[in-house]
Structure formats: structure tokens, C-alpha cells
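Continuing the series of single-chain predictions for the mutant panel. This is the parent chain; the variants come on the following pages.
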Amino acid sequence: MIGPGLLLLFIVGDILGTGVYALSGQVAAEVGGAVWLPFLCAFVVAMLTATSYLELVTKYPRAGGAAAYSHRAFGIHFLTFLVTFAVMCSGLTSASSASKAFAANLLSALNVDGDHGRVAMAIALGFMALISLVNLRGVGESVKANVALTTVELSGLLIVIGIGAWAVFQGDGEFSRVTDFQTPGGESAFGAVTAATALAFFAMVGFEDSVNMAEETKDPVRIFPRVMLIGLTITGVIYVLVAIASVTLVAPAELGVGDTPLLKVVEAGAPGFPLEIFAWITVFALSNTALINMLMASRLLYGMSRERALPGPLSRLLPRRRTPWVAITFTTLLAFLLIGYADLSALGGTTSLLLLCVFAVVNVAVLVLRRDEVAHRHFRAPTALPVLGVVLCVYLASPLSQRSGRDYEIAGWLMASGVALWFCVWVGNRIITSRRSGVN
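Parent structure:
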């Protein structure tokens, strides 16, 4: 059983990752110096949805995940499958974005200058293959690696915040940029902020995974709400401070070029700081995101296969390691396709799109399940919060948020592939059932 301290470390470590390390520059390109505002808005949306998760996880401490909650609320197997597959796909797009950012930062760490698109692609693919090998070794090795990488991940962001604070106190940089909106193409400030928030939301995902730790937590009904809200607040504050430090030291237009925005911030604020060290910190931080998400994606695929929602071979295990090697291989191949097909911004946007849709379902589920009374006391979110959560999640997932069309294209192909696999299994099960009926 884990206590509040370890649970807090798990939640913070699960949220921190690629979103701020690689996409802060893309967010700056949307809104200019007010890059902190989309991260703050994303934090608010995440906090609203977190209250729904908290009510559900304390009400059903042995049920975990959006799929379990949606199935309990609606009882529609196909909807449960769609929610589960969307979560799985979000893990793939998140890990693929981390791989592309990994390649860019590794080239910086090795002092390789210039445009090396093919080399970066080869590195990203090789990195994903390495992640799959770690995954094949087993959960124990993956969790041990996660603890170490979380520490590295947090240290990199604290370095950026420290450098930014030092520069401001020394009178360096331009702090006035934090209130400067520079919207592309004459877009309104509101439209620019919502488009940037739809992308920045990628940085806040991960907290929903912690509900699966409910059974491992001492007194989850009492501890879980407080620790999750503290963890979300810590990450939100870190992201806002990193964003402010970034635009204070680097002009938004420059920050939005390339896939290594925080390296530019460190170089501008502390020229004497060894950039190679920070580049390696970023590399390891991105490794953490990829490892967690590929681990989650392969296990979800394995679980769906065990429940006969996907083809049976996906549940096959290695004889000695007991790891789902077919599911790991399949998710790795899908990640390869995503790395080759989409850029970093599209992968991040697709991740947030998929999870915003899932969160909208969870916010509705918590309201539907209010009619289901339980004997024990549990956290109860004020009704207005899940209602507002539904509205904001749907809005940010819709074209009204000025979201890129590429997000819908990638998400559509991923979900269509899942539905096709599900349909094949459904037809196969119907044929088997009819044959058995004919024999009897």
C-alpha cells in the first residue's frame, strides 16, 4: 500500500512530460508572449474533470478508468470499447510525439547542427523500438525506470524556472512580453487562446491514470482527493512558471521554431550553463513519457483482446516474461506509422483531442451515476463542475476551438482501425454462435 507522498510523486510524474518540453514553442506561436494563459486554461479544464474522476474513484475505489465508469453509467459495450480504444490511441500519439522530440533533443545533445530530417526520423524509430524492448522485459523494469526518469524530468523544469527567475532578478530578458498577444493571421485573441489551449491540454493529461492506483492507496476515500488536487496544482504552477520564464528570455517567434524550445531558453538565460547536460535531461524526460504511454497502450490492447473485443492473438504472452508480445508489437508498429506520418504539433493535438472526448464522457458519467447510491461516504463534486467540464471539453474538442484539421484526420484513422478490428471480431463471434446453435 502506498501513502500520500508516493501517490503525489506518481501523479506529478505522470502529468509532467512532452507537453511542456516540446510543445511550449508551438503554443507560443499561437498566442505570442501570453503563452502561460493557454497552460492556465488547460489546468482549469483538467481540474474540472479531475473532480469527476475523484467522485468516481472514491465512490467505486475498485473500479478504475474511464472505460469502467462509462460502462457502469451507460451499459453500452460498443461505447465502452470506443472509450477504451481512444485512451489507447492517445497513448500511442503521446509516445510518438515524445519520440520525435527525443530525436530533436538528442541531436542537440550531440551538437549536431543543421537540418537532419532523415537522421532524426531514424533516431525516433530506433528509440521507439528500444521502448518496446523495455516493455517486453516487463512491468517491473518499466516502473523502476519510471521512478528515475520522473526525478530527471522534474529537475529539468526546475532548472528552467530557476534560470528564468535569476535572469529577471538580474534585469535580463523582457518580462513585459508575458502580456503581449501576437495572434497569427489577424485571428482574435479569444480564438488564438482557445486554439492554443486545445494544444496545451496535452501537457495536463496523465492524472487520469492515477485512478488505477486507488486499490494500492491507504484510505483512498480520504487521501486521494487531497493528493490529486495538490498534484494537479503543483504541475499547473510549474507549467505557468516555465511558460513565463520561456517568453521572458526568448522571443515567442523564435521559441515557436523547432522542437527544442526549452534548450533555447536555457541558452539565452544562462549562456555558461552546459547545454549538453540540459539536452540530456530533456532526452531522459521524454523517454519517461514514451515509456509510460506505450506500457499503458499495450496493456489496454491486451485487455481488450482478453475481453474478446479485439482479435485473440493480441492477448498472447511471452512464455517466460508473461508480457503481451503481440500487443506490444502491434502498438509499436502503429507508433512507427504515426512517427513517419505526422509532425509533433499534430501528434500533440491528436492526443488532446482524443482525451478531451474521453473526459467529456466521464463528466457525463459522473452525473448519470448520481442515481447509484453506495453505502460509504465519498467525494462529491459540486454539480456545476462536471457540467462545466462537459461544455469545455466538447468545445475544445470541436472545430469551434480552431483546432487543426490534421488532429481529426489522425484521430479518425486510428479510431476507424479500431472499429474495423472490433467489427471483424463481432462478425466472427456471430458466426461461431450460429454454428454452435446449428449443431445443438
